[in-house]
Design a protein that fits this description.
Helix content is 56%, strand content 0%. The chain is mainly alpha-helical. Helix 3 crosses helix 4, helix 7 crosses helix 9 and helix 8 crosses helix 9.
């Protein structure tokens, strides 16, 4: 029996998936999704820059960074950029190379904290979370304590 078998009948469709992979491309009206004619001469040039293939990197990346800094989805996009490990596109105001410099263990810990939080808010028992994430229960309780320091909306652990 797999760890997820004991809870998948109790959760809404896709809830387990989103709890285990709590990141995805930002949903909403991202600033980069519409052509910024004040910064880029053509929509194709803007798209090429965000695809990681700027015409003139020294000119285009600062323009793209300015678009990102004005975006209402910047924080969500930063989480996505950190977790996705996309090695090509310009995301959250950073080139793939700039993001690669920041990829370290802290990214993995942040992802695990998001997974633990998402599962815990779905009322998945701590023991089951531990099995799903292949960690021991005390480690999961420690993760919840860390998350709770930053979030007051989580109930106490059992």
């Amino acid at each position: 029996m797999e760890p997820h078998d004991e809870i998948e009948d109790e959760l809404p469709p896709d809830a387990l998936f989103w709890a285990m992979e709590p990141f995805g491309p930002p949903m909403g009206e991202a600033a980069c999704s519409t052509w910024d004619r004040t910064r880029f001469p053509t929509p194709q040039e803007q798209q090429a820059t965000f695809d990681g293939e700027p015409t003139v990197p020294e000119r285009d990346f600062p323009k793209a960074r300015a678009v990102c800094l004005a975006c209402p989805l910047l924080e969500i996009c930063r989480d996505y950029a950190q977790d996705s490990r996309d090695e090509h596109v310009f995301l959250a105001g950073e080139t793939a190379e700039e993001r690669r410099k920041n990829w370290r263990k802290s990214g993995e810990i942040a992802k695990r904290h998001r997974q633990v939080t998402a599962l815990y808010t779905l009322d998945v028992p701590t023991a089951t979370i531990a099995r799903l994430l292949q960690r021991d229960e005390s480690s999961i309780r420690g993760d919840l304590r860390e998350v709770r320091k930053r979030r007051s909306d989580l109930p106490p652990t059992a």
